[in-house]
């Protein structure tokens, strides 16, 4: 398969080989697809709710466990380190084993880790809990998109992926605000019960982690679709192709697949920026802009949820619509939206009016989130179904290792370092003060410069947009190459 050549230029016109789209197979597939999508979306919502609950109570955890901004930022590092390292293993397993059973194990593990976070007594124990969370979530993050790619055809794949990934910011919003709200109100609930020591941020993790244990049970009963069932290929040939194992040459081809590599690197820069902003925004609005912890969590949560609905829906719809005549739109839409987000991120950091801060934050997040559906569709469209698990896993590995594995930590370190009076007295400090990035005194009397820390992400956003735009020229040829490989492998298997 590695030596197969396809002429350059626009993708050839599709000629479906199987039953007509309106036939009974398509009807059954649609019914199964909708049901499976609903279950996977709900679990994805719980995934991000559990992941981001920490951001909503981070200030409380820091005070209780005595952590600096650098230590607080490193918690995301430990989570994403295990998440990234386990992802390739899960991708390899997912291309060979029943994916729904693997999902059940992953969902159960991350839910137990979330509940366990409420029991920690030190920074060290918290890093262990976050690491276990990463192992569990790696399973789901890798395998769920491959199942969806087997259920939704190319013509609607960007919208399906965008809708699925809506759970990310919605779960973020629910996790950030929900955890903050539970932490604030749980002391009243538990007063006089003898359970007062579990009130506050600990109770938040007990409550948000519990539903995942039930979700793990439901994963055991999800149907397992045939790999490649949604492609323009006869169902019998899709089942034949499913049994073909990728060769070393196929994996080597993935490394030189330009659409794939540009997409992965573009997503890495987005993840660096968005992951850092999502982690620190509630604390920034509280500590620097004076919103208060609960109001900051509410503002970020609502803005994130609404911007996700608009940004992801618009990005998926626009990319699908434009790609009917120009497949390159799957790159052009997210690339342009990333570049347009830059001025609004800067305005969020430096605006003084509450309304201006909230409006700029909403527009920045909306534009940045337009990339998720189209970029996931690119990966599904240029990789054969029998190695999509590995493709998504490698993608997850690199977007986090090059992205938000570092950004929250680097932003926290920048806040600590650039808050020192002697640093602010240097030429660096003078330039930061000239643009309004000044330290703020904390409750313990120390000074931290979280404004300067927030600026770390701006170059990454601009770079990501440029990378995605550069990848557009390769896409039509590599989409045609994938379909040709799939048909070739099915024919070879049937002989």
UniProtKB/TrEMBL annotation:
Transmembrane segments: 75-94, 101-120, 132-152, 164-183, 203-222, 260-281, 296-318, 330-350, 356-383, 390-409, 450-472
Chain spans, region Disordered: 1-23
Keyword Ribonucleoprotein tagged: no
SUPFAM superfamilies associated with the record: MFS general substrate transporter
Domain Major facilitator superfamily (MFS) profile per the UniProt entry, residue ranges: 36-477
One Pfam family matching this protein: MFS_1
Any GO molecular function: transmembrane transporter activity
A single GO cellular-component term on record: membrane
Isomerase among keywords: no
Domain of life per record: Bacteria
InterPro entries assigned: MFS, MFS_dom, MFS_spinster-like, MFS_trans_sf
Taxon lineage: Bacteria, Pseudomonadati, Planctomycetota, Planctomycetia, Isosphaerales
Name of the protein: L-galactonate transporter
Coiled-coil region list: none
Major place of residence: membrane
Subcellular location per the Swiss-Prot or TrEMBL entry: Membrane
Membrane topology: Multi-pass membrane protein
Keywords: Membrane, Transmembrane, Transmembrane helix, Transport
């Amino acid at each position: 398969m590695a030596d197969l050549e396809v002429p350059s230029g626009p993708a050839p016109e599709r000629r479906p080989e199987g039953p007509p789209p309106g036939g009974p197979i398509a009807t059954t597939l649609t019914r199964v697809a909708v049901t499976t999508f609903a279950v996977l979306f709900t679990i994805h919502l719980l995934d991000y709710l559990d992941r981001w609950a920490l951001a909503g109570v981070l200030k409380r955890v820091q005070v209780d466990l005595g952590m600096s901004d650098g230590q607080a930022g490193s918690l995301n590092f430990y989570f994403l380190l295990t998440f990234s390292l386990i992802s390739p293993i899960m991708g390899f397993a997912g291309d060979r084993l029943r994916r729904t059973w693997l999902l059940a194990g992953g969902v159960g593990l991350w839910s137990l880790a979330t509940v366990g976070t409420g029991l920690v007594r030190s920074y060290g124990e918290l890093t262990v809990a976050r690491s276990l969370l990463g192992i569990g979530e790696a399973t789901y993050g890798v395998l769920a998109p491959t199942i969806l790619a087997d259920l939704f055809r190319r013509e609607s794949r960007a919208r399906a992926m965008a809708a699925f990934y809506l759970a990310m910011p919605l779960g973020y919003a629910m996790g950030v605000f929900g955890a903050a709200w539970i932490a604030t109100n749980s002391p009243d609930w538990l007063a006089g019960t003898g359970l007062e020591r579990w009130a506050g941020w600990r109770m938040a993790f007990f409550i948000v982690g519990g539903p995942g244990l039930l979700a793990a049970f439901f994963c055991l009963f999800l149907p397992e679709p045939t790999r490649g069932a949604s492609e323009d290929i006869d169902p019998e040939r899709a089942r034949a192709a499913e049994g073909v194992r990728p060769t070393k040459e196929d994996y080597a081809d993935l490394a030189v697949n330009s659409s794939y590599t540009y997409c992965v690197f573009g997503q890495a820069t987005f993840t660096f920026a968005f992951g850092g902003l999502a982690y620190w925004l509630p604390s920034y609005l509280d500590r620097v802009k004076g919103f208060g912890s609960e109001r900051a969590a509410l503002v970020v949560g609502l803005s994130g949820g609404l911007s996700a609905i608009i940004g992801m829906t618009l990005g998926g719809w626009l990319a699908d619509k434009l790609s009917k005549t120009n497949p390159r739109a799957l790159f052009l839409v997210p690339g342009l939206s990333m570049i347009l987000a830059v001025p609004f991120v800067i305005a969020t950091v430096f605006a003084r009016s509450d309304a201006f801060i909230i409006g700029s934050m909403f527009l920045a997040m909306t534009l940045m989130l337009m990339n998720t559906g189209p970029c996931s569709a690119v990966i599904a469209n240029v990789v054969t179904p029998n190695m999509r698990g590995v493709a998504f896993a490698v993608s997850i590995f690199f977007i986090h290792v090059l992205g938000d594995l570092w950004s929250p930590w680097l932003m926290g370190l920048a806040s600590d370092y650039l808050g020192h009076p002697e640093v602010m007295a240097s030429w660096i400090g003078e330039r930061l003060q000239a643009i309004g990035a000044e330290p703020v005194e904390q409750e313990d009397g120390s000074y931290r410069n979280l404004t300067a820390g927030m600026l770390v992400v701006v170059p990454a956003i601009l770079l990501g947009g440029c990378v995605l735009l550069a990848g557009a020229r390769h896409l039509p040829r590599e989409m045609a190459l994938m379909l040709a490989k799939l048909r070739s492998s099915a024919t070879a298997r049937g002989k």
